[in-house]
Amino acid sequence: MKTMLKNYCTTNQARIFTALILTGILSVSSGGTLIKNAMAATANQPTQTTSEVLKGKIKTNRLPNQVVNAVLRDLARRERISTKELKIVDYSQQTWRNGCLELPQPDELCTQALVPGWRVVVSNGQQNWVYHTNSNGRFLRLATAQTPSVNLPTSVKNAVLQAASGRLQQPVSRLNITQAQQKTWRDGCLELGGIDELCLAALTPGWRVVVSAVNQTLVYHTNQTGSVIRLNEKASENTDDDKVKPVPIPTSELPPPLDQNVVFRQISSGGFAGRTYETVLLKDGGLIRVRIGDANDSERSVRRISVQQVEQFQRLLQRYRFSNYKNLNYPAPNGAADYITYTLTSRQGTVQYNDISRNDLPQNLLKVINAWNQINSNTQT
Questions:
Q1: What would the pLDDT profile of 176-195 be if each residue is shown by its tens digit?
Q2: In contact, 131 and 71? CB cutoff 8 Å
Q3: How far is Cα 134 from Cα 117, in angstroms, rounded to an integer?
Q4: Residue ranges of region Disordered (predicted)?
């Protein structure tokens, strides 16, 4: 980072020097003084400028000076070090989901209001600290202050960071452990077992660890050494991951439960034609599609997949936690028209989405949808 900033300042100095020559201001007698003053002006830019150049590109939204000063002063007070030893290495605008800036203290009641603000990463060259602030820095919280990770075993830390790095496709250097809490899990699956998974019924000491990156937070459950680690996908879902904000489906609008021999069902409705189709997958591999309201049943189609494929799809529903989206609707943008709404139902629950916002859905839900669409496209009459 120091090298990058040095190069940035050097480039600015060269530009200033060139400008002085072109305008004829520079002279033999006064040139040294002008250059010296120009270099001093460049070096004395506000602290926030150091965070403007990140990874070779310019940040378009500048971090306000009052936020910079508030964060640096708070950390300097906490760590009893000079603000001169601290540097802001990354920041991003955020909209926090509650008045606690998504960092509530135990048993704290948080106002359920969206709070515009910033996520700021500060470094002393050896350690990083992550802050959540409001828009002007008058209200801020240190993420690592809530549940310090000082006692987190190195083996657990490394295991969690490696897992998060692989999932987010980001280097470990860009990840921060913002929370680490000792836990005693109720079973050997760390309380994250699947529906049909056999979990050892024994108390398991371990850790709950939160890893943060830009626009993403992951929550992991581990055992005491980190040799067993699981991602809590439901807790990891956040507003950054869900580009479309889900809303509960009213009970009165939920479809009827599945028949005993049905594994999965899709109901599609809307579009230009305004027709409604129902497709069901049976336990024996039968795939039946009908149009609702077709008196002659003329559009019925019957296809088939293998029982092994049915079982594979059921395992996929568990693997990607389809139940996490139980009774949620991902609505279309306001003013949208002629879109198709899909209602998917499994034994774990029902979820709704539409063809306009499909690509903005959570990644795990998309994986389920893609697998289901593949079953539909690969079956034979």
A1: 787 788 889 999 999 998 87
A2: yes
A3: 4
A4: 233-252
- Which residue has tokens 């998504």? 102
Q: Quick: pLDDT tens for 184-224.
A: 999 999 999 887 788 998 999 999 988 876 556 788 999 99
Dihedral (CA of 53, 48, 178, 98) sign: negative
Q: Structure pTM? A: 0.42
Concatenate the DSSP letters of all residues of 174-205 into one string.
G-EEEEEEEEEESSTTTT---TT-----S-EE
Number of residues that this document lists for the chain: 381
Q: What is d(CA 272, CA 269) in angstroms, rounded to the nearest whole number?
A: 10
Q: Three-state SS for 9?
A: helix
265 vs 114, more confident? 265
CB-based contact 140:134 (threshold 8 Å):
yes
Q: Which DSSP symbol is given to 240?
A: T
- Contact between 211 and 157 under an 8 Å Cβ cutoff? The reply is no
Question: How many other β-carbons are positioned within 10 Å of the β-carbon of residue 159?
Answer: 21
Q: Going by C-beta distance under 8 Å and a sequence separation of 6 or more, which residues neighbour residue 164?
A: 170, 175, 211, 213, 218, 220
Residue 61 carries which DSSP code? S
Please give the Cα distance from 302 to 309 (Å, whole number). 16
Report how far apart the first and last C-alpha atoms of the chain are (Å, whole number).
61
Measured distance CA(341)–CA(339) in Å, rounded: 7
Task: Give Cβ neighbours of residue 268 (< 8 Å, ≥ 6 apart).
Answer: 276, 277, 279, 340, 341, 342, 343
Nearest to 380 by CA among 306, 274, 290: 306
Select the more confidently predicted residue: 125 or 187: 187
| Cβ neighbours of 373 (radius 10 Å) | 12
DSSP notation for 67-136: HHHHHHHHHHHHHT--GGG-EEEEEEEEEESSTTTT-PPTT-------EEEEEEEEE-SS-EEEEEEESS
Higher pLDDT, 176 or 16: 176
User: CB-hemisphere CA count at 13 Å for 236?
Assistant: 25
